[in-house]
Amino acid sequence: MKERINQVKARYQQYSTREKVIIKLGAAALGCAMAYYSGVIPLDNMINNSKVTLKQQTETLSWMREEIDKNHLPVQLIKTDNPRSVVENSAHEINLTLTDVRQDGQMLSFVVNRVNVYELKNWLREINLSSGVRLEKMNLTPVDHLSDVKAEIQLTWKKSA
């Protein structure tokens, strides 16, 4: 292999200055073409694909927000004097056990260790419609392969103006 390299070097040394410049320009053009076709074009394709995906996701998000606004507009103002007791009493009525209940001003956090996700959704909707307490944040963790979940829920409300 070293022999071949030495032969190429010796042959290159025999070329005239003009030929050496032409070879260098050709190698530079070939290097630029390789960089363009192996780096720039794939990056450009990735950027375009990301833009298309982002546009689709934005359209989906807009559609989802429109559907939420059209089908279920959460009540913004509180309709009760004691939202915490309304939530706890409502949970007790449907046999939901609330653990780690914490209230911080106009925010109530709690954990439900095991609940059917559809039952939870209906309960939260009813709480919102009856009292004005709305869902701020919710983390769901699957408990089994059915539709039972562990839910960490954060509810909030606004005082009436």
Overview of this protein structure:
The protein starts with a helix and ends in a 5-residue tail after the last strand. It is built from 4 helices and 4 strands, in the order αααββαββ. The mean pLDDT is 86. 10% of the residues are buried. With 161 residues, it is an alpha+beta fold. The chain is rod-shaped, with a radius of gyration of 33 Å.
Task: Provide tags for this entry.
four-stranded antiparallel β-sheet, 161 residues, alpha+beta, 21% strand
What is the share of helical residues? 55-70%
Largest sheet: 4 strands, antiparallel
The average pLDDT value, as a whole number, equals 86
Rg, Cα atoms, Å: 33 Å
Q: Structural class, from secondary structure content?
A: alpha+beta
Number of helices: 4
Uncertain parts: none
Measured distance between first and last alpha carbons? 86 Å
Instruction: Return the string of H and E elements.
Output: HHHEEHEE
Strand content: 15-25%
Principal-axes shape call: rod-shaped
Strand order of the largest sheet: 1-2-4-3
Count the E strands.
4
Quick recap:
With 161 residues, the chain is an alpha+beta fold. It has 4 helices and 4 strands, in the order H-H-H-E-E-H-E-E. 58% of the residues lie in helices and 21% in strands.
